[in-house]
Design goal:
By secondary structure, the chain is mostly beta strands. Helices cover 10% and strands 36% of the residues. The protein has helices at residues 2-5, 75-79, 83-86; strands at 18-24, 29-33, 38-44, 47-52, 98-102, 107-110, 115-120, 125-131.
Length: 132
Amino acid sequence: DDLNTSWQSPWGFNEAMLDVFAVDGIASGHGHHRHKEAWIAQVTGRKAWWVAPRAETEHFSDWWKPVFPYKNLSEYEGNSPCAWLLQEDLVPEGAPIQHCVQQPGEVVVLPAAWWHKTCSIDEFNIAMGQQG
């Protein structure tokens, strides 16, 4: 409860959004995915991000799950959220993909439907925020 009352949503975000509290370790993260708008504040540790806008043409898997539009991902890339950090040559050239490393105290804001993947760089990482 104390944590929940010690912060508030940034301006322009709905307080009814899903609260996110993430704790993870080195080389963990999330593979390519997308969802509604979100913001995430890094409390401790560093996190690498790769983000890309929604493509004009959408493709879906057999399960109606959206497919990453900028590259046919290898099994290694699809299963390892840190693959692009370890092998930068895997990042597709010419695609509208941006990369950054989020430091403690920084906030990342993602528009709805933007593709992203993350990789925790440090042994102990905490982040909190909200997603639509």
